[in-house]
Write a structure and sequence with these properties.
globular, alpha+beta, single chain
Amino acid sequence: MIPFNELQDRLATAWQANHPDSMTEHVVVALPSFSLGESTLAHYASRIPALEHRYLNAVFLLDAIPKSEFVFLSTTAPEPEILDYYFSLLREDRRDSARRRFRNFTVPDASPRPLAEKLLHHPGIIADLRQHFAGRPVFIEPWNVTAHEVAAAEQLHAPINGTSPDLWPLGFKSAGRKIFVKAGVPMPYGHEDISTPAEATSAILDIRAKRPACKGVVIKHDNSGAGDGNIVMRFADKAESPQQVRAQVDALPAWYLADLLAGGIVEELVSGRSFSSPSAQLDVTPLGEVRILATHEQILGGADGQVYMGCKFPAHPDYAADLARHSVKIGEQLAGHGVVGRFSVDFVTAREIAGEWQVYALEINLRKGGTTHPFGALRNLVPGSYDAAAGKWVAADGTNRAYCSTDNMVDDAWQVLSPSAVIRQFREAGLQFDAQTGTGVVLHMLSCLAIDGRFGLTAIGTTPVEADVMFARANDIVNAAPELRGKGR
């Protein structure tokens, strides 16, 4: 075992090998280990293997970076038909080379635990991986970094392109608000370091008094993601008494109040005639450079509109440049603390009729997320760069690209469909991604079809409208599958 701090000294060398012009053979290890709370893992238990498979989109880097080898760790092996599909999206003359440089190591364990934790109980797989690296530069691309991922890295003798778990609290909601203040970035009025019903009540009453036009508040757990720890409390037309507000707080689910003991925030519910929930995705490189990668419009759902369902790239041109500017300031603060790797910043924007957009930072996510895999597909299939000032992806030939993506194309009836059937439907509809045009639909999470009739897709077009049109056709394309005939479709 090699201590984590010593391993991280190797990261910059391995990371620098991972670019298109590199002549250094190296290994990138994808570790989609969802190190989250037990309740969250239990909720997603049946879907965890399919969620891991979202990051198979990273196989496209094998085309973009010829000297790379891609090692994918997962709980279940990707089905051969799915791997065939991914490599079929590359230019024909490059498929064999990319296929030779892909390796999957499976950790056979169906329990609802993080993949990194499972790996630690399989020393034989760890030994096989170390032998496979064969002394080449190697680094791990994690989903997030906790003690489990650190322990796995130490056993694998491979550094992690991610933030030390010692800095994980920087991504908490309360810490985020404090960083926004230091960065000079606007945020909703509110209070941090909330842990008791009494403190939450006091914060709500203060927001009600200071923001009389506010429609409500959002209570958020410090250590939560994807909206799972958020609860919206809307205000009545007539101001409630302190006793009534306290009663509303006390009426929250027992589990929610129990988790709030670990910390949280209460902030005003931003609203307007026009409203959006964009985000920005950034990297802090091992050299300390802050890079803006992309901006997105988040597609939110759930009862309170707080649950992440998908995204559109890029964000609205009226404020995309503001998102990038604010996010870089936040990134500089994080880099000063030692943050490394991918992170994102969630925002909310609102305006009244004919008014200017108001942009507010909401939270920091020190991990990969729902925008990571669609952006990875674009970046590796249509090489180019993000023009932060214009809010556009500019491909190598000067043309633009946009996409619409989700992990939640779902219908119970689709459980009878195989991955091959869905792949066939998009190919026959003429929507499969075409390497020549750099447009079309990229499917992912196809292994989830058998679980609950769910899969994901990223529709890449030359304009947002073109991407949206492809995305909107998806349901009809799948429902036209011959396998669904006679089933009310």
